[in-house]
Amino acid sequence: MSDTSTRGLFRFATAGSVDDGKSTLVGRLLHDSKAILADQLDAITRASAARGFGGGDRIDFALLTDGLRAEREQGITIDVAYRYFSTGRRSFVLADCPGHVQYTRNMVTGSTTADAVVVLVDVRNGVLEQTRRHLAVVQLLRVPHVIVAVNKVDLTGYDEGLFRAVEADALALAGELGLEGVSVIPVSALEGDNVVEASPNTPWYGGPALLELLETLAVVDEAEDVLAPFRLPVQTVIRPQGSLAPGLDPDAFRDYRAFAGQISSGAVRVGDRVSVLPGGATTTVIGIETADGTLDAAYAPRSVSLRLADDIDAPRGVVIAGADAPNPLAQEFAASLFWLDPRPLVTGQRVLIKYGTATVQAIVTALEGRRDLDTLELVEASDLAINDIGQVRVRLASPLPLVEYTVHRRNGAFVVIHPQDGASLAAGTILAA
User: Fold this and answer.
1) Residue 13: beta bridge partners?
2) Residue-wise DSSP of 353-384
3) Cis peptide before 399 (omega within 30 of 0)
4) Taking CA 120 as the corner, what is the angle to CA 114 and CA 126, rounded to the nearest 5 degrees?
5) Residue 77: which H helix or E strand, with range?
6) pTM of the model
7) Which domains does the chain have, with CATH numbers?
8) Distance between CA atoms of 409 and 264, rounded to whole angstroms?
9) What is the pLDDT of residues 203-233, one digit of tens each?
10) Which of 139, 198, 277, 319 is 20 to 30 Å from 169 by CA-CA measure?
């Protein structure tokens, strides 16, 4: 593995059934990696004592992530809690996702951009229906790395036989769902076994601790982003407004116009030929600028503004793409939908599709089925209810340069929005355009 694949920012999410210990694992990970401030540690120590947690000076690590009052009162995670921490090897963004079936939609949100998902399983309960549901979501979202953390091994006296049985079931399920390279680790979030450092209590386990594994996994999306064709969804058009700062020549800025956004894939260099989609106008990049100055080249996911040789129309929502890359426009596509709203989806429903920086009107022309999470097969369905995963066909009011999700995760994802109240109805991935 190259050094570049293990540097930089690494995003991962935790998932699993209720009471499997996700929030405790996250708290332990932050504590043992020295990512908790002294005053924060003091506060949760006092809160743990006030709640009578374990007696003595033991800490309820779940208090670090279960920040909502409702979460603490009910003892469950409701919202996705994001935490940021660093080690000597890399920086992390961690999403602690809910385990309750009611909040599966939040798990989808936390996993969409993850480089890895850690699915917790209580060694005493083994693989459950919610475990299958979460692994099915991971498979459909093409999360590059999957880790199954078999938790609470301390409560079984670090019994290897119980762990091996759960490990076999987890790997069998992963194989059934088409997940490859799944790692299974015995951990105790409460006691810290195999969380940050290898535990002497599990001499029968010879693999890495959880943090060690997270530090060495490759950031697959980084390579995918750089090697993919160049695309920049235009966020805004920059033109001088009002009076210029003293000392600047007005004539130099009279015709200034730049197109700003975040590069979603690939790389761009001064002198590159690019196309503006839809429309197809072709021009040349004559300048790349950032808040820190000008560049000769820029790579995903950098935010930049591009100056183009020709005076072309490129408002918010269009895509500036490499002129030599295929960028077919599509007005109809098939997609997987992760339905997030209490209101059901029915065939013929009018929605808004937010793809990149573009938002267009659309209609769901067909509901091809709902995923049976026991088999992942499509079964006939008349609608999609909250937390359902379905397959649909969508027709757009105007064509977009769509990319399939299997080709590029970021460029192949979209959001479905209610046209009246603006609610996010679903997260979607493009299957075929």
Assistant:
1) 95, 117
2) EEETTEEEEEEEEEEEEEE-TTT--EE--S-B
3) no
4) 140
5) none
6) 0.76
7) 3-218 (3.40.50.300), 225-322 (2.40.30.10), 330-432 (2.40.30.10)
8) 10
9) 999 999 999 999 999 886 666 677 889 999 9
10) 198
